[in-house]
Design a protein that fits this description.
236 residues, alpha/beta, 5-stranded parallel β-sheet, 10 helices, 11 strands, 36% helix
Amino acid sequence: MARIIVTRMPHQAATLCQLINETGHEAVLFPVLKIEPLNQAEITKKIRALTAADFVVFTSQNTVHRVLESGSNRQFKAISIGPATSQALESYGLKPVIEAADFISSGLFEVIAQQLKDTDRIWLPQSARATNELAEKLATVCEVEHTSVYTVVEAKREPFQFKADDTVVFTSPSAVIAFINLLTAEEHQLLSKLTLLSIGPVTTAVIVEKGLNVAYEAHPYHIEGFRSYFKNQKKV
């Protein structure tokens, strides 16, 4: 049994913690980020103005909750980056008309480019930390409005004792950076001994950029993609 550190925010951690426990390991929460809402008036106005002809592209569960808790209008077509985001949409009674096959923004763009026309309209609500890459690509397909609906900041550090044989799961680039920033000088000496897991190539790139090694990258690029790794570690 391994002790696996989950760096997700508490409201997002249940599925990963359940998977860890199901595969015979111990899930331990160490949240490194928290959400700060942005542009509430703009979001409320935009939600009210959406019509059945509009597409809204959701690239995270956080965006789903942030947008759909801001208004009751559901008269639009939702597009999802992957199953976790789709599940969040369905909890509000929305079934996405498009879901990306590989759970990353490049795959999302490809499927949108294949199915939408230049006369369509897209609203892209995202984290303020997201790059403009997806918005710029979508603008080559049709009209796009891009809104920052929240940002993520470092969470307050709670008392925690790391061990050299801990495994740490990262599900976003922001989580990697926040985790490193929250460590003490002594804990920084442990970093190279920790087993680091990544949800996908963008997160992996940040870990490697920090001079660290990735023991495993989820395949496919979402929570369920860690299952085989956890199962194999249980056998070791």
